[in-house]
Amino acid sequence: MKIPCPTSSLGWHAAPAPSAPPLVKTWLARPGALTAGLRALGAFRLRVLGEYAQGVPPDEAHGMGLAPGTPVWVREIVMSVDGVDAVMARSLTPLQASHGVWQGMRRLRTRPLADMLYHDRGIRRSAFACSTVKRGVALRGPARNVLPADTRESAGLWARRSAFWRAGQPLLVTECFMPGFWAAAAARPEAVGQQAWDAGGAARRR
Fold this sequence. Notes:
Largest sheet: 7 strands, antiparallel
Order of helices and strands: HHEHEEHEEHEEHEE
InterPro entries: Chorismate--pyruvate_lyase (IPR007440), Chorismate_lyase_/UTRA_dom_sf (IPR028978)
Enzyme class: lyase
CATH superfamily: Chorismate lyase-like
Helix content: 10-25%
CATH topology: Chorismate lyase
Protein name: Probable chorismate pyruvate-lyase
Number of strands: 9
Distance between the termini: 21 Å
Strand content: 25-35%
Number of helices: 6
Catalytic activity: chorismate = 4-hydroxybenzoate + pyruvate
Binding site for substrate: 75, 113, 175
Shape: globular
Radius of gyration: 16 Å
């Protein structure tokens, strides 16, 4: 059975709004490793913005099944395509798990998280939840800081998230698509993969 998507009262939903552009719907539902799709668009690069411990914010606590304030380990990165910032991602797991079943997260450096997620049959992934990035969403501040200062107020950002589970411990991954991503995606439609949401909001295979 598919693990339910990590929705919350802050606007995370199991499918994007019907008014979302088709390209947005398609990429928000793209299965597998997002890094593979980005590499198909052009020259891929990953840079680490920060790695640190904090108390989990309420929005992310809900998505992980934790109490707000539970200590977690956080990793924030930006992935670029052909020198253009494409996706800002924030990953977190309980602090204790970052020394246990998810300790590999601490050793990634500039390697993508996908390197440790898609080669272990013991890892299960939830369905996606998606949203526009609103106030109260933990990713909002770091994502806006990646944008040029003169576009931070006007840029509408789409994001998706899912939770990976190993030995009962969650790893929540939120991926925010930067404005510069969409031009690259529109130019290479074949990179998107094989899944999109239909008009009724359900995920379907193409």
